[in-house]
Input
Amino acid sequence: MRYSLWRILREACSGHRRWEPAWRDASPKSGYEVIVVGGGGHGLATAYYLAKVHGVREVAVLEKGGIGLGNAGRNTTIIRSNYLLPGNNPFYELSMRLWEGLERDLNYNVMVSQRGVLNLFHSDAQRDAYVRRGNAMHLHGVDAELLDREAVRRMLPFLEFENARFPIQGGLLQRRGGTARHDAVVWGYARAASGLGVDIVQNCEVTGLIREGGRIVGVRSSRGDIRAGKVAVAVAGHSSRVAALAGLRLPIESHVLQAFVSEAVKPLIPCVVTFGAGHFYVSQSDKGGLVFGGDLDGYNSYAQRGNLPMVEEVCASGMALMPMIGRLRLLRSWGGVMDMSMDGSPIIDRTPLEGLYLNAGWCYGGFKATPASGYCFAHLLAREESHEVARAFRLDRFATGHLLDEKGQGPHPNLH
Ligand SMILES: Cc1cc2nc3c(=O)[nH]c(=O)nc-3n(C[C@H](O)[C@H](O)[C@H](O)COP(=O)(O)OP(=O)(O)OC[C@H]3O[C@@H](n4cnc5c(N)ncnc54)[C@H](O)[C@@H]3O)c2cc1C
Output
């Protein structure tokens, strides 16, 4: 069923009784060409591009709970392609271009809003770093603008300009960055993949991998054994646990990241803003709530909730940037489990086990990567070679030393 204005009018005339479910909640078959483990954004996008671009339609997405209840439905929805390194930038720019056409492609309103992403700087050294990043973006054909203090003040007059401990000196703006509605992205990919014949199997936890002669040939699941030509793992914060089922130890740690939503207020913040003198980023949802977040909680955990010290730290950073935020009531907060890699960059690669493929290490920036991640993972699965923009995301880079450390933080996953 295609969605359109005509369809809405037609269904309205018949009392909205004929809408079909957006996707089929399938039962698992005995075997598939490809099994994708994990029904988050990345798993569903992979299945969609496998079916759409490569014509591989014998595909199942196995999700242990309901689709989109992991990080895909828990993030602060920021999308951008303002990366510095040549190994990262073209990949995230491909993602941005896919975002720009996603609604037409999926025939689903994923509410992509290119309202701009502004990274503030507060020192000369930070300005130099942002100039360098902006220039690198230009070299890759990505939009970037350097704003001085007065330009930032005109755009966001409510920020703390007068009495700040770290005064705002300016900001690097990517106007094409912004936000997308995270749940809609999951639903849109699920609907489009299901429409192409992909089986989306919920409440189906992968509990083991079937190995024959050194090759992975299927999975053991809470709904029985299912055979597959290829098994593609896209389970984000649970990557280490699923890889352990195959005896693999990944260069990944799982950490908690929290997000927060305030009560709704009138339109206030026109873009996404990140604080440069503390870890704090904020945007305003279409319902009016301020959506914001900060740093990881700082210890390893699989709990989807965080702790109070980080609530205090994030709110303190928010107060330092825009003191008026202190008048707002905090409505909700929650946590997600992040797959933090050792260099802060992702992995889209084969594993040493034939038949087993890995998509992981997204840290806390994987939402913006969803379209390109699915696109490139599908490319790898269908063609047995990395997509040209994802060649740097190799699993063996931690052994060969070809690290992709965008922030230059070294092997400290909690700092990426
Ligand atoms: C609070 C927070 C804020 C964030 N903000 C941003 C942001 O603003 N911008 C951005 O780009 N990124 C952001 N991220 C990161 C982003 O959400 C993640 O990197 C991305 O969603 C991960 O990919 P995914 O959607 O596939 O993960 P998930 O949605 O977590 O999908 C993985 C799925 O695998 C399933 N699974 C796990 N184990 C098994 C198993 N054994 N069998 C079957 N299924 C299994 C899980 O149930 C889950 O549904 C944020 C994350 C959090 C938590």
Remarks:
- The radius of gyration is 21 Å.
- The longest helix spans residues 89-106.
